[in-house]
Queue: 2 jobs
Job 1
Amino acid sequence: MNVPPLTPVPVLQGEPSPGRGSIPTPALVGGLFSRRQIRSITDGFTRLVIKTGGISIILCILGMCVFLVKEVIPLFLPPQATPVESITLSPLERPATPALAGIDEHQELAYVLRGDLLDFVFLAEETSAISRIPQQGLLPGGSVTALARAFGKGHSLAMGTDDGRVIPVAIDFVQDFQGDERSITPSVTVGTPILAAPSPQAISRLAYQSTDSEVRYAALLRDQHLWLNTVRTVSRPDGTVSASTAQVDLTPDISGRVTAVALASRAELLAVGTEEGQVYHFDLRDETKPVLTETTQSSERGQAITALAYLMGDRSLVVGDAAGQVVVWMPVREHAATNVTHMTPIHRLASHQNAVTDITISQRDKGFITTDSTGEIRLHHSTSEQTLLTLTPQQGAFRNTYFSPKADGLVSVTEHDRLIRYHIANPYPEITLATLFFPVMYEGYERPELVWQSSSGSDDFEAKFSLTPLIFGTIKGTVYAVLLAVPLAVLAAIYTSMFMHPDYRAKIKPTIEIMAALPTVVLGFLAGLWFAPVLERNFPAMTGMVLVTPFAIALSAGLFLVLPASLRHRIRPGVEALLMMPVIIAVVWGCLETNAWWDALLFDGHYKSWLEKTLGLNYDQRNAIVVGVAMGFAIIPIIYSISEEALTNVPKNLIAGSLALGATRWQTLLYLVLISASPGIFSALMIGIGRAVGETMIVLMATGNTPIMDWSLFNGFRTLSANIAVEIPEAPHGGTLYRTLFLAGLLLFVATFLLNTIAELIRQRLREKYSQF
Amino acid sequence: MKEWLRQFMASGELFIWGCGAGLSLSLFMIAGLMVLILINGMGYFWPADLVELTLKDGKHVIGQLAGEDVSPKGIPRIRMKIGNRDLYGLDYRWINADQIVERATPADLVMVERREWGNFYGRLKAILKEDQVVTEGAEDVWKALSPLLSDTEATEGLNPYSVLLVEANGKEKVLAFDQVLRVLRPNDLSTLEKVWVYMGNIWTVLTTEPREANTEGGIFPAIFGTVMMVMIMSFIVTPSGVIGALYLREYARQGVIVRTVRIAVNNLAGVPSIVFGVFGLGFFVYGVGGTIDALWFSEKLPTPTFGTGGILWASLTLALLTVPVVIVATEEGLAAVPREYREGSIGLGATKWETIWKVVLPTALPGILTGLILAMARAAGEVAPLMLTGVVKLAPAMPIDGTWPFIHLDRKFMHLGFHIYDVGFQSPNVEAAKPMVFVTTLVLIAVVVTLNLTGIVLRNRMRRKYAGSTV
């Protein structure tokens, strides 16, 4: 048999190396490589494979964190606006003509209404075609002195003329599919003119809304009279259509020159701003009797109100004034017991340097765009109270600006008759660190609050993404679980490592390890469906158990000590735990049997009403106690194993020394073992907390999952983890909810990673310390 | 006395007993939980006697006893499973003991298992063939029934027969044969026969598909899904875990970086499973799956093929979740290989790879196996990440079947753990579903505990084997 060389250093040639001529050359395999070569090639190859494989696997695992961060970051990126087009329109003869701009939801076809001239601009990548429909203008006679747009679905506009007429104009975009090609054709419907006031005069300002059955507008005439008009059409079953008109002069309620008028999208609210900075709020639900609900001084320095707009949802009113201030006002209830509300300034947004000329709202969220007299554009979001973008296109002032239907672009028509368009990438306007973690003033609330509510039935609902209640729930669940688990687990660990008879120790550890392997879904199911009802029925007895157990322990210890010595010595040392077993069973059984007695003794016979009367607490069936017990159960094994390890590893010679010097078992434990093992027990606690923080199934199944913030033992909560499990299946990919849930996941990741790292470092140091002995 | 008390406190005996009580309490909780699941899970299969109660108001109740307790007013009462959900609307009923006049177990009571509405408890009256009475009288019907029923199974077509049943108070119910699964007379069965039925029931649950929103029937698809998912995961996790550990222990230069990486990998085992689920959804399902769809299944879009949850993504997610377990256990195994073995191998001229392949890995095999088994146990019990990556309450098709390409990794699947959550918390009739949940729990725990015990035994054996060697 050939003896291979002793060194694993690869020998690349099959020829005998100099000086070793006596060693026979290994036979060539296949005539190409020697066996030795193949072996060394294999060795090098596997080294390469394992190195690259190992590194990539480890990178893969660690890459998780990077991926989570990558998914979360877009939430906090500032929005982007890119100018796309700037198109010159045909010049007009009269410079001060009112104008409106608009665009379809795909941003393919824009329109500009200047006076009565309606231009459609087909936006193509290279050249944009402009066509005027109809060529001679929309009006056969008279000239347009005011324009207004109805916010909401579709594009309905209105023109006010110098002879006091209001003419509705509806623009539709008809989509046509030919194969995969989509083409859009505009259609224009001009409605019948309506007289704005009994005595015709030129209209200087107009606010307009139309719904399926009615048209409502407020027209300010040249004589400073503000007329509210409602035209209601009723279609009868027999096919006839009748129209009723209500006309009311609002001027007697208003003092001062009117400078801005706005109608809410359902046309039930009207806001009128004056030169003195006052805003008059009208309730229009009865069209014949508009009610002035409130007058507010909306501009501090008595500046004229120059622009008004209701945000989506018809609750918040954006007020812009001549000094450039932009403030969002909301109706806020005086206190919880009333329905009386007062308009209150809630969100102050970044001011313009000059007078605000126009406010256009988003049809998607609580965002809006303001423009000022020098042609600066700002994009704001009301709830998150942030000004997202400031654009200065340097094109002169704007006649009108429009926020595209999907809130992803804007078009403006300038005073120099140019149409400019921006693409806006602003997917997450409602998310800031402040809205995620601090109280936010939402519409309809009395004060800033922390709310998680991601969806609701109604259309104009605003999702509320505060992570604080969920973090609170996570902490609450963890605290209650730890309160139960730590004493039990640490006591059990102390007992097993210090006092227990070694014969039993070998059997106890695997049992506890099995407990660690129990799927948490099982614990959650038992907690929710078995323990919760049992606890509800036997709450007084359970309270009794907690009270009785310490006495039972003391009693058994005392009894054992007063046993005659002859009897006592027959029992092996280290079996206290076994002797306690029947005592515990007796306590549990005894308390359950005397449930009614405990109820009478502690809670006047009915614990639920007692809790409500004395402590003001409601008892929910699935409450924090249930979760505490189930989650405590889940983390007992891990805390037990790690503390047991720490306690067992305390060097035996130290313990022997202490006992030999005359200390009792208890003193040795208290003054030596516990102190040296305390870092280990602390790290056990950290790891236990880490487990409890991320536990999902137990909290999902054993609480009501209501995101409330309340330390009460008797109600439920919602944790970050359960929230992810509940909400992410419904969250659209890449949306705000989706990314917020990723953020929740990232928080969990970071928290547990930190806890575990601290624990691991402590354990390593402890091991090093012990190794000195 | 005072002196004695002082001594008693000072000796610390009290606290030692307190520690003992802590351990007892923990053990008591585990034992209680196991007993609870065992009793409830196993009890479900037992064909318990049907009891007929005659009440004070002259009414009769037929059902199976399902517990006793004392009502809030202090009257002892019993809980009956009364079945006949289509007639009564509820499955269980409490009856106060003082209302019961007579309690009997007549032999002619039947329990009919059917496809809908849960069990029927009552008596047989007649067999009908297209509305014509063919056989009448409880005994005759009972005798004629089983051959006709087995006929149904053979023909599998429309069965013209139906059976006329009577509930406790004489209300009649006609049941077509194709609705009937089995008719039993539990009171007529001997203990041995009951054991036979009991075994049969266990077999049925383990091998058949669920019925009635998962609350009846079997859990075979869930068992199959769990096993298959764990197997796919093992295929992925074993090589990657072993390669990772080999790199860390054998090839990487031991230093601060490797130590940090080791701690990080260790800690990943403690990162909540839901976070892995979130990652799996974002990376595997939407990221990788979405890309695969865009590249190869674009003709089916917008219906996703791989861009939605499926067994492959669930397995990959769980592999990621459990790979730290395998790495840690394998490293432990590699570290436990005595130094002399390596030195001997190298000394005899083997290359590094040969040493690893022929000496180190075989010696460390128990460690690797332990890691793998613990990983499998953890994977079998995890539910939260699966809920995001492809588990469903009712999978229309198995991940393996007879249509090309036989193994469908893109399909959604059922899982025992999710079955527990779904049946126990999402089904419309939780009370009726509870026994099924207990059975599922029992099966899941059996799987997980068996896997864990194997792992623990293997590890202890390995530790003992190398306890003497210098590590």
Job 2
Amino acid sequence: MSARWRTGSPGQLLLAAALASFLFLFLILPVATVVYVAFTEKGTGAFTLVNFADFARTDLFVRSFWNSLYVSAMTVVIASAFALPLAYLTTRFEFRGAVLVQTLGFLPLVMPPFVGAVAMQLLFGRNGSLNLVLDDLFGFKIGIMEGLNGVILLQAIHYFPFILVNLSTSLRSIDRSMEEAGQNLGAHGLRLFRRIALPLAMPGYIAGASLVFVKVFDDLATPLLLNVKEMLAPQAYLRITSIGLADPMGYVISVVLIAVSVLTMWLAARSMKGRDYATAQRGGGGLAKRTLGPREAAIAYAIVILILLIVLAPHVGLLMLSFATVWSFSPLPDGYTLAHYTRVLGESSIYIKNTLLYATLAGLIDVVVGGIIAYLVLRTRVPGRQVLDWAATAALAVPGVVVGIGYLRTFYDVKLPDGSSLASAWIVIVLAVAIRRLPYALRSAYAALQQISIALEEAAENLGATKTRTVRRIVIPLMTGGLLAGFVTSFATASVELSAVLMLVQTNADAPLAYGLYVFMQTPAGRGAGAALGVIAVLIVAIGTWLSQRAVDRSQRAHGLDL
Amino acid sequence: MLRSTLLVTTLLAVAAWPAAAQTGKVTVVTSFSKDVTDPLKRAFEKAVPGATLEVQNRNTNAGVKFLEETRSSNQVDLFWASAPDAFEVLKSKSLLAAYKPKARGVAEKVGSYPVNDRDGFYSGFAASGYGIMWNERYVRANRLPTPKDWQDLAKAPYFDHVSISQPSRSGTTHLTIETILQGEGWEKGWRTVKEISGNLRHVTDRSFAVPDAVNSGQVGFGVVIDFFAFSSQGAGFPVKFVYPTVTTLVPANVGIVANAPNRAGAEAFIEFLLSPAGQETLLEPTIRRLPVRPETYAKAPAEYPNPFKDQRLQSLLTFDALLSERRTAPVDVLFDQLITFQIDALKATTKALHEAEAALAKKDNAAARKLVSEARDLVAAMPITDAQAASPEIRAAFAGGREKTARQAELEQQWASFAKERYAQAKAKAEEALKLAR
Amino acid sequence: MTPTERPAAPVDVRIEGVELAYGTTRVLKGIDLEIRPGEFFAFLGPSGCGKTTLLRLIAGFAEADRGSVRIGGTDVSGRPPWKRDVGLVFQSYALWPHLTVAANVAFGLEERRVPRPEIERRVQAALELVGLAHLAGRRPSQLSGGQQQRVAVARTIVVEPKVLLLDEPLSNLDAKMRVSVRRELHALQRRLGLTTIFVTHDQEEANSICDRIAVMEAGSIRQVGTPMELYERPANLFVAGFLGAANILDGTVASGAFTLAGGARIPLAAGAVPPPGAKLMFRPQHASLAADAPIAGTIVHREFLGATVRYALRVGESDVVVDVPFQSGGDLHDVGAHVGIALPPERALYLAD
């Protein structure tokens, strides 16, 4: 074993260096230009930690910090309550419509900005459909959308697919004999699930849950739309984007956000160290699926439909809103019309085209970069590979507005050959979105690579294939499924990304859908049109997801993988 | 795209109108919605052949931030928004270029507000009035009276039914607060603001979130700028609007950005906005701004408010823009620390006060009345005076930059605990008063 | 009470008319079997013969389309796996990686709501029984293959199942381990007196430890018997070929003799009635080589094995192996030599497919 082998081949080192430069240029540098203020003393610009002391001394921030922790933790609990039954029922039983459930269960992740919250208010708000009907019939209302509760509910609906997807994948990859051994020894039903399948699927659950926790901790849009400001991410956003204020606290909060997120991901990784069981036993055919009895089936469908009704409520509301003439203080809209769609399709086809282009490119960048990082970390000994991983993961925690401002600062003075600024080129929007969604693709690539036995690669090398050819002929084909899953997540969420985009859009001709939505949602007459645009966004993602899913299935069948 | 536009412009310039050579693509950053910008863009491009208006939609704050961040190689010709404060900030950062419009026949003042910046860095092209908007279905369902004045909103029935946006997030709300402060004086003005705020349902972080919440019926009343209400009515929502007896007229402004890449185009756009054709476009139902040319009102529909004739819209104080600019940050931060982020405490106190006063109305009690009055004073108390708010020390804390002064976070924490303490004391007094009155 | 202290009375397993098809593929084509109480029984056959499916059917992981499974006289068909009291040791062992060795073994007792102190006692006893008490706190991933296998056995027997099922339990072990582990298994089964069914594709494994064997092929049982019976009196060519080396030669039956394709006649032993389409089968050690013997062949290969010398011959279109005892100083036939094969009629078996 030569020293070369231990530190990585020149090719690997080159790849790692290229990725490091990419991350440095498009993540670390822009973010650093923004957040370094957090560490400087007012007036002198000298290094100081006094701003963090201010953070700890300010009631508002401390309160916001605890609120954010509480909301994130509760969201994980509620999201688990949505995800667990769906994952359990669809993976454990012969469940007609399991694919549909899994697909519908992915949709909430695609919640177009603004309109999702508006739709939820119209349905479940203080004077939403539900409460108006309740008040009319029984004379009381329930405050499910009030304050932190509303944030928790909406966030749980929005992000539970992360748990559903990861948990389902883990459950499916458990060797069937694991459960059979339990049955053989007398366990069955929920108890068996709780004692055997669930602990074995823990890595998937933890991966999903930690992602949910971090996303909720860092999300500013949902709380703000529900007028909840006393949380960290909204505080950071409000301070960073207020005019005339030059104080560092917004950036201090950003640093806190990044630190908490990285810490969470680290703890999650640590708690799962050496416990990646699901991948230890590959090829066991997954859990045996049981047929449900008629009574069981009735209960199971009731549960699934109830959960789907809740989690798809924003989308249902959105759909209604997109067809509504006027919807104000009434359980249902006053009337229905197609006018919003006519308007949107007439005015906004450029947004749709741009969105498809940007989200596809961002997804591709993420899959390539994520795939390479996963390979470097899991299969090579390139020094500093772990740093690449953490840097890419940290992108999860950087508020979009920080990325946006960072990009403006870093790239505005970079001139393109035709004299225009790099920051005004649309590719910068793509890069910003790609960086923000990189962690999703990275996690998928990890999972995919971990499931490939290293023996398969060794066999190829043993037969004379070089590292590069092994990657091309063995690793990439086998990873296709995971990479495509990563692409779908990146693509889907990138297509509704707003915060970084809003800062970077320079011309209407380059604007993606989320920006169009923002513009529509600033006018009373634009609400229906915004909803229509939101529906189109969801459709685009749904079709994109479906196509990718089909491609995954095909490629896996082609490679003889029955997942 | 850019190149082809330039080509077309050049061809047009050779062939026809001399002014066309100076137009081409005009880039504008604006907080105005599509409903406003689209008709004006169409009219402008029709009036000035060869010109295209490139609209970048950002809210006022983000727009200012954007110009700040990109000043090194600015690509924007015009900044186009309501809040004069935003223009003052841009002006103070040397991000605007002076320009004196050539158009004749534009009024010097709308109401009592000067139309143009005294230093010539930005020009008013329209005005809007602030007022109260409400959802009729909501009001009917909750059997609420309709308000006529700002002070009405402080009354007990409106508790938990009102919405407003943060002045730190909405230039126009800031102007309303500032107008109240200038009109009633620092102490009394804040008292009014806090009394109204005690009835708030929530404080939003976007101007449009207020009419949006009223439109959908999530809140009953909103403090909004008139065109939000008018365009909501235009979209069919069951909403009504009233100008309070003391209202503010807010000019909508436009200014040329320093180092504009297309200065000539920028000037052409300003001239268009002030031209009779441009002013008439403002009357369109989706725009509904008040023109600054008095003669344009002749073409306005019946009952269109006319600040040049309507007595109510004229009897206003003279707005001191300089004073306003000097204390912009302290006023915003005071509002946020005393109201936005203390909203639960403030509401609880206000509720207790409403209950105590209701009890007193049934059965008077001198001691209780005294307690209520003390409680109201506690709520109204301010951590700093107006002189302090405009002082260099306080302003410097928010200005960042060169001097080593108190940090913003320190001041905020002081002000927040000041308010928290007093609201708690006031609540205790109000509850005591309620006990006495029973 | 531990498994070693007081073995429960062993039960029998009866499989009656069991048929199973997955779609159009018939996996089990009508299986009838009786496994006696306390017997160490093997399902032996090549991969794909249905032996594992039959085992899973007994354990309740597959359901027969027709037929029944009775354990100790009780029909358990339709009962879920957790109500069958049948212990299964998986081919992969299926040890739960998230639980320690002790927790793995305790699982079944916990499911049976056994009181905690008793669980501890029985887990300890079961681990001692397989000699792994010192590894109770380890995780399965920290054990060797043989150790994992013993944990899997301990986990299964600790709940005192009525029947023990072993699914290729030795296939994941190296050759040396296999021999010692199979002896341990055998000893353990004897000590527990537990009715045990063992699935394997390796005839040597089955022969060495099982009381009786069911030889399976393509979803059917071809023969049931003790290892000796199967070897000595295979019922058909498949069984003959699967257990031990067998020479098979084509020919026809006519007038009290079997005539090979090359013309050689072998008289039928008294009472022998070859079934229709029968072929001649004999074991290599039952024939001898002589110049004037009736079956003519050519030696193509010779191996010296110590106690015997193995000759590979070409007889017409067929290959034949003959083992001859080695005698010091005796003459050996050379490769290429034409010799005759002598076969006592009573050693010739006439079997059909």
